[in-house]
């Protein structure tokens, strides 16, 4: 019986709800028989990896390196990351996606006698790792719907909650946040960092950093030298177009990188992923083009949606949270039937909203046409 076999499973895991990812295109085709579907559900780069990355991967397969274990230290990639950020190699941790970094942090810093602190409507993985580690969650209420950053993080609330909960070991900040797309002012982040006791780790998730207006970005690199309890992470899954290969990395103090390294799987990045990330990092023109497409289309899509009377949260990322003023489930279903996969965010306590990734111009047009049809029905 399942009941008996799971008797010794961690209590946090037993009460856990698994992460629900955006639906793969194949699954929609299987379920509804819709062909020609497009996926705007997981915030991938609609241009995919750059031509240089594709060529490097093809050449590597031809050389047949795959029987050997990858470089477990990721030395070549780390050297490029070190140069990009002007940081020492031993302050970099590579992850199998930045999800892996979140997981490593949880394993090191969370347990039954500890708490993690994060915002309502924040990235779901923070909650999953907290619960999996049987740690307590301190969820800080978000800003109001009418705030300039609707449903965004409230760092004054974070600071208060930190004072009231001495067991907090780890604070997660997503900037921009997923699924709201909201951002924090750099001076507010730094003011918060000043208030955090040194034994509390602040994990600053910058998965969408490249998509932010440069004027709104904080100098996270400088903060790392000022606040040894800060760890910042980035990913190759979004602007670099490598979501399928799973590479992310963090920058931190040497001490923090050292403890993460102790629990890291010895070969957590596969050799194709390491190679692709190295080549992608060198192709900043491609990132720039991807970001420009996103900025242009994000503005166009936002305007069109607002013109349809819908609520669009201000986004500095590569997706929009769109409010329908009613349960968004039927809209989601209608879009699926039109072959357009978007992301319901009811599990983020935003049941009236759908999250839609910014696609290519053609994909966005297709989404708008499908949405008009669904709303007219
Ligand atoms: C997409 C995303 C990540 C990145 O996940 P990977 O594991 O690097 O693919 C991290 N944080 C947030 C908030 C995200 O939305």
Automatic annotation (TrEMBL):
Alphabetized UniProt keyword annotations: Amino-acid biosynthesis, Aminotransferase, Histidine biosynthesis, Pyridoxal phosphate, Transferase
Pfam families hit by this protein: Aminotran_1_2
**Superkingdom to which the source organism belongs:** Bacteria
Give the enzyme's EC designation. 2.6.1.9
Pathway(s) per entry: Amino-acid biosynthesis; L-histidine biosynthesis; L-histidine from 5-phospho-alpha-D-ribose 1-diphosphate: step 7/9
Enzymatic reactions: L-histidinol phosphate + 2-oxoglutarate = 3-(imidazol-4-yl)-2-oxopropyl phosphate + L-glutamate
Where would I find the Aminotransferase class I/classII large domain in this sequence?
A: 37-371
Tell me yes or no: is Transferase among this UniProt entry's keywords: yes
Please name the GO terms that the record assigns under molecular function.
Answer: histidinol-phosphate transaminase activity; pyridoxal phosphate binding
Q: Per its UniProt record, what InterPro entries does this chain match?
A: Aminotrans_II_pyridoxalP_BS, Aminotransferase_I/II_large, HisP_aminotrans, HistidinolP_aminotransfase, PyrdxlP-dep_Trfase, PyrdxlP-dep_Trfase_major, PyrdxlP-dep_Trfase_small
SUPFAM superfamilies hit by this protein: PLP-dependent transferases
What residues bear N6-(pyridoxal phosphate)lysine in this entry?
Answer: 238
Specify whether Transferase is a keyword of the entry: yes
Q: Which cofactor does it need?
A: pyridoxal 5'-phosphate
Any GO BP annotation? L-histidine biosynthetic process
- Family named by the database record: Belongs to the class-II pyridoxal-phosphate-dependent aminotransferase family. Histidinol-phosphate aminotransferase subfamily.
HAMAP family (UniProt xref): HisC_aminotrans_2
Subunit arrangement?
Homodimer.
Q: Which NCBIfam families match?
A: hisC (TIGR01141)
This chain belongs to which protein, by name?
A: Histidinol-phosphate aminotransferase
Organism annotation: Solimonas aquatica
Upper lineage? Bacteria, Pseudomonadati, Pseudomonadota, Gammaproteobacteria, Nevskiales
State which gene encodes it. Answer: hisC
